[in-house]
Specification:
The chain has about 240 residues and is α/β, with parallel strands linked by helices.
Length: about 240
């Protein structure tokens, strides 16, 4: 699954996202013991829900249930069977929780960049956690929500254009479907005019982008999230 930072997600659950972001911002300064206890609590809840409410996990993880407490204590799930993409494709219906409706789930799928697209469900709470987590990571680089950024992921232009601007997220989308060495000067010119705080990209895309710029003798456009600055120390040394 690839992560998407979308304004519409924020509009759906603004208070929940704000609370989760505040929790992540505060908890990063917690002691290792406090963080470990929180992870253990969430892991216990997740495993219990899986074997109680998900048919596939009742069958595959049920036999390990008596060993869950020791696994949780060690934070080690190596004994459990792995879930592969093929398992998700083959057992999709069986992987849906009996009480999935209460979580306001929606269906999505991977891009299929490494093979066949994989369909799966995502609930509203997961979207909240994802948005808040990405927000915090970008904060670490100095980004503030609403600042300009460029995107080199799965944007598909509606015409033969190479880029499109989304005013809702202040994002300049640069198409990787038309990625060609000959297009690099235009991409760089657009980036310099737009002056994004950061570039969100597939690793393969940004690697190829940099390689082509080097071969063409073009300097990489200035991208500096640190110009915004971000608090690097806890607001309260006693924060838990």
């Amino acid at each position: 699954m690839y992560l998407i930072f979308r304004l519409r997600d924020y509009l759906f659950s603004p208070l929940a996202i704000a609370r989760e972001h505040a929790f992540l911002d505060r908890s990063q300064w917690s002691s290792p013991e406090t963080r470990r206890a929180w992870v253990q609590e969430r892991l216990e809840h997740t495993l219990d829900h899986a074997v109680r409410d998900v048919p596939y996990y009742r069958r595959t993880l049920g036999p390990y249930r008596d060993r869950f407490p020791d696994m949780i204590d060690r934070l080690d799930l190596a004994e459990l069977p792995l879930l592969t993409k093929e398992d998700v494709r083959t057992h999709y219906d069986e992987l849906c929780a009996d009480d999935s409706a209460r979580y306001h789930v929606g269906t999505t799928e991977t891009s299929g960049s490494t093979g066949t697209p994989t369909r799966f469900m995502v609930d509203r709470e997961s979207n909240v956690h994802q948005f808040a987590a990405i927000w915090r990571v970008l904060n670490w680089a100095g980004y503030r929500f609403g600042q300009p950024y460029a995107d080199m992921t799965g944007f598909l232009p509606r015409s033969d254009g190479l880029a499109a601007y989304d005013w809702r997220t202040n994002c300049l989308h640069l198409s990787t479907f038309n990625f060609k060495k000959a297009h690099m000067p235009e991409y760089v010119a657009r980036l310099r005019r737009f002056h994004p705080v950061f570039i969100k990209a597939y690793p393969s895309a940004i690697d190829l982008f940099c390689r082509w710029l080097r071969e063409l003798g073009i300097d990489f456009p200035e991208v500096d999230a640190s110009r915004v600055g971000y608090r690097q120390f806890p607001p309260d040394e006693t924060a838990e």
